Amino acid sequence: MAQNKFKGLGIALVTPFNADGSVDYDSLLRLVEYQIQNRVDFLCVLGTTAETPCLTAEEKQKIKEVVVERVAGRVPIMLGCGGNCTAQIVEQLRTSDFEGIDGILSVCPMYNKPSQEGLYQHFKAVAEASPVPVVLYNVPGRTGVNMTAETTLRLAREFDNIVAIKEASGNITQMDDIIKNKPKNFDVLSGDDGIAFPLITLGAVGVISVIGNALPAEFSRMIRLSLRGEYQQALRIHHKFTELFKLLFVDGNPAGVKAMLSEMGLVQNNLRLPLVPTRLTTMQQISEILKALHIKI
After folding, report:
1. What pTM does this model have?
2. Which residue from 18, 84, 133, 269 lies 20 to 30 Å from 55 (Cα-Cα)?
3. Does the structural domain 8-229 have CATH classification 3.20.20.70?
4. What are the domain boundaries of the chain?
């Protein structure tokens, strides 16, 4: 039976870009090291926050290789491996090299809006083809379709290598239903920073975080306190970041966190179209909050 290595604070890594639009691998490696030195529990590579739809196949392959090499087994690595063509994903899973990869994150198919049975059959094919554990990803705000608790639990019960779900439906009742009725070998991870704390109090085991790119030490402390049941201290940290949670997504993801990272001197504030940098007013608000929180590198 596959074990879920993805618990605690996971980071949805951004992809830094140079001014000419090329991938900034030096900054990427510095960012990886920054995460590990600040005690994150795992990394999620080539997810939504990485602007993966705008990366070439060659860039994705190189990003995977350089991150695996730099991490060198120090923390588990989750690799984004999803899309809306089931056959294409199955082929990728059967032919790719997963050396150094501890599991995949596979998002619900976007745009074609499958039925619940279609979602089940899609992830059944993914689970049967995957050589590593599978984490499902439900994010209806991006995909246009919500995977219900019933479908998630059906997959969790029938496939031992489906070990968790990143839940970003925003529906606490649905998430609680999954947590309450899931099998023992299946976990729930928050897909939103803003609800990581309340979801952990309900029984989630961690979060795949955007804000953690910039504030891994602070956010990991909140997650660890929450997981230990020290809710009052965790709540105080949660409330410190409430405004940042909003600002990070007001102009789209990862525009907000890249603005924050650039303010901290970790990456350049460059994105690939159709995404653009966050507005100046938002950036000024982020800068003011960082100063108030005394965040330093």
Report:
1. 0.96
2. 133
3. yes
4. 8-229
